[in-house]
Specification:
It contains eight helices and eight strands; from the N terminus they run αββαβαβαβαβαβααβ. It is of the alpha/beta class. The chain has a single domain (about 30-210), classed as Glycerol-3-phosphate (1)-acyltransferase (3-Layer(aba) Sandwich), CATH 3.40.1130.10. Strands 5-2-6-7-1-8 form a six-stranded mixed β-sheet, with helices on both faces. A two-stranded parallel sheet has the order 3-4. Helix 1 crosses helix 2 (about 45-55) and helix 5 (about 130-135) crosses helix 8 (about 185-205). The protein is globular. The two termini are about 15 Å apart.
């Protein structure tokens, strides 16, 4: 971790541990090193730092590319391993940077739903994460956050002291679909992207906080 990243990591752990009384489940399922995609549901701006603060390794985050135009903000985002992407989180340049981070052995957070939920419910997965998964060789760890919508969803202007939790699932590899995507026709490749996205979203939905042991940060 860079000094700036470490400072932010400690700060958010303190905030989540006091104001939000957080809980972390099964963080040991995330590889301690090497490339990994953390695929999470998205309910709040609290989600990315919550996931990152629950892990002892540094994480690459996505941030809107226009934020990097401001010198101080851009420098801070770069020191926090942020990846510039367009407003919709897609684009060839953004995908290349995501794949470059994975190729370099990094971990990155992606949101299959594409945007924050408006009602607290899980949303259908978009195919974009399937493209990133198939183009890489990284394992995918499904992640589910709980309580962040109630704490700071779209309907709130300021975070409430509501308890939050994050749970990490078992890694998914998609070896067969990656191999098929190398040789099949384009229409099937597009279907594979959506299939991967749907399977990841199903794995996220299957995670519940009361199962398995709790990891205390």
């Amino acid at each position: 971790m860079s000094p700036s990243y470490l400072a932010g990591w400690v700060f958010f752990r303190c905030v989540y541990g006091t104001y939000f009384r957080w809980r972390v489940f099964n963080s040991e399922r995330v590889p301690a090193e090497g490339p990994v995609i953390l695929a999470s549901n998205h309910a709040s701006f609290l989600d990315p730092p919550l996931i990152g603060a629950g892990l002892p390794r540094s994480i690459n985050y996505l941030a809107r590319e226009n934020l990097f135009r401001f010198p101080l903000i851009g420098a801070l985002l770069r020191s926090w391993n942020s990846v510039p992407v367009d407003r919709n989180g897609g684009g060839a340049a953004g995908l290349r940077q995501i794949l470059d981070r994975l190729l370099a052995g990094g971990a990155i957070i992606l949101f299959p739903e594409g945007t924050r939920t408006r009602d607290g419910r899980l949303q259908p997965a978009r195919s974009g994460i399937g493209l990133a998964v198939i183009k890489s060789q990284a394992p995918v760890v499904p992640v589910r956050v709980f309580g962040t919508y109630e704490a700071f969803g779209r309907h709130l202007r300021f975070p409430k002291p509501h308890r939050v939790a994050v749970k990490f699932g078992r890694p998914m590899m998609f070896a067969e679909l990656r191999a098929e995507a190398q040789i099949c026709a384009k229409p099937r490749v597009k279907a594979i992207y959506q299939q991967v996205a749907n399977e990841i979203m199903a794995a996220i939905a299957a995670l519940e906080p009361h199962e398995d042991k709790e990891t205390f940060p």
